[in-house]
Structures are given as C-alpha cells and as structure tokens.
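comment on this one:
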Amino acid sequence: MQSINIEYYIFAFLWAIVIPIICYFTAKKKDKSPLFWMFMGMFFGIFALLFLTSPRHRLKNKKYPVNHEDRLNSKLKLYETMREIEEEKGKSLQQN
C-alpha cells in the first residue's frame, strides 16, 4: 500500500479551514450573505481535499511510479479481446 505525503493533507486541511473563514469575513464586510460564502469556501476546500488525496493525482507524483508494463499488458489484452470479438462478428455475418 502506498503512503501519502502528509503535505497534501496539511495543505488541503488548511484550505478547508482557512478559505471558509476568509470567505465569511469578506462577505460580512461587504454585507453579503456570510454563511453562503462560508459554505462555498467549505465546498472548495472539500474539493481540494478530494483532489489532492486522489490516487489519480498521486500517480503523477514521481515518488509513486506507475508500472507501465502492467498497463501495456492490460491494453494489449483489451485489444486482443476486441479483435476476437470483431472476428466473431465477421464470421457470423458471413454465415448469414
């Protein structure tokens, strides 16, 4: 199992806490709906948390290399299966 850098969690946690507070006080200062903007900030903070801790994002990180051989083998198997299906369709069409 791969470990995740703690920096991702710290950054996302700060984003999820600090951004709503900034949104709240900015909206309060401008006489807008502060709770609405606070929840909008929370939404973006949660989105950042999900993005930064997602496996797809971590695969781009150099610390967690992708096994390209496995990916190529799975693609090769997929293409072989597709080719077999197309051949079977061609045979069934010729028989009809």
Observations:
- The chain has a mean pLDDT of 74.
- The helical segments are 6-29, 34-52, 55-59, 68-95.
- Residues 1-65 form one domain.
